Amino acid sequence: MMRDGYVVAWQGREYDASPDGDNVRIYHSDPVDGFDEVRPGRYVRVLTPEEYDELIYVRTTCTWRGAPFIVLAEANSWLRVEYAGGRAPIARQLGLEEFDFGVYQGWAPLHEVSDLSEQRI
Fold it and tell me: Which residues lie below 8 Å from residue 85, measured CB to CB, with a gap of 6+?
């Protein structure tokens, strides 16, 4: 599972999370006690800082064609990646799209990617 976003540790388990001021919203895909349904298949609970153990940012990184990338998404056997090397000429050589000024993204076949790892920030 490729993760890129906030995660909170609560009651011995990690949940996808969204900071909301001092509080944190956590999410679950199944009905669970204490969670409110916000749409089908999406349940939320708001935690105060005293209730959760740790809030961290998790990012998945990899190497593709010898360059460093952040993994944004996964679809079938492809990864949506964002170049993390900071050098526009190299990003262009890799055939990446300029998604925003200085931000280069593309799709990488999973079998071409190496050093896939999760970074906890």
Answer: 67, 68, 91
Which 8-state DSSP code applies to residue 90?
Answer: H
Q: What is the pLDDT of residue 121?
A: 85
Summarised one tens digit per residue, pLDDT across range 1-29 is 678 899 998 998 899 999 988 899 999 99
Pairing of β 97-100 and β 67-75: unpaired
Q: Are 5 and 57 in contact (CB under 8 A)?
A: yes
Question: Residues near 113 by Cβ (< 8 Å), separated by ≥ 6?
Answer: 62, 63, 64, 69, 79, 81
Distance CA 112, CA 90 (A): 18
Task: Please give the Cα distance from 60 to 24 (Å, whole number).
Answer: 22
